[in-house]
Design goal:
single chain; about 210 residues; alpha/beta; Methyltransferase, Cobalt-precorrin-4 Transmethylase, Domain 2; 2 domains; 5-stranded parallel β-sheet; 8 helices; 10 strands
Length: about 210
Amino acid sequence: MAGLVKVVGTGPGHESYLTPIGLETIKQAEVLVGGQRLLDTFVSQGQEQFPVDKELKKAIEYINEHRHSKRIVVLVSGDTGIYSLANYLTRHIPANDLEFVPGISSIQLMFARIKKPWNEAQILSMHGRSLDLAVEGVEKAQITAMLTGSPWTPQKIADYLLAKGAADMQVIVGKDLSYPWEKLVYTTLKALSKDEEDYSNSVMVILNE
């Protein structure tokens, strides 16, 4: 269909976690739009690229200008439905002109790794967000999963929760999930707040059980 933009969830990181239908959709694209890391991972010879940075408006302008003449696929990390660029696209492109191909989120993989269900988990993203509203939620929920990111590292989150009077809850940090060097760290808020390891690209699960 002319004008249709396909949005593919590329999984938690390693290309082996991309679904077969996602891979086929990407191969059929004439233009790939997405973060540079995703473009570097999935682009094929002959495909055009449009890197997405913080200026999301430019990406929307490019997509709307070219989507009637070229097959455009937008690459998003994880799943299209969890704290994804896909949601931003729905506010600027008609829903009938979008097709979402879901992927495996880092949240899903994290809970698979720790062998716990996530159907009742509170899910939060700290990418560029304030933690103030999350404190009460963390204390009320039995299990909370956080997508950590600048400026909120797992250590800063732990330190902030403790400063706000939270109990010393159990924590699991999943770093670089899906990659061969991925790491799971079982700890507590107090121990994590003093940990000097680099936990960039991590998912944090807080157990209040």
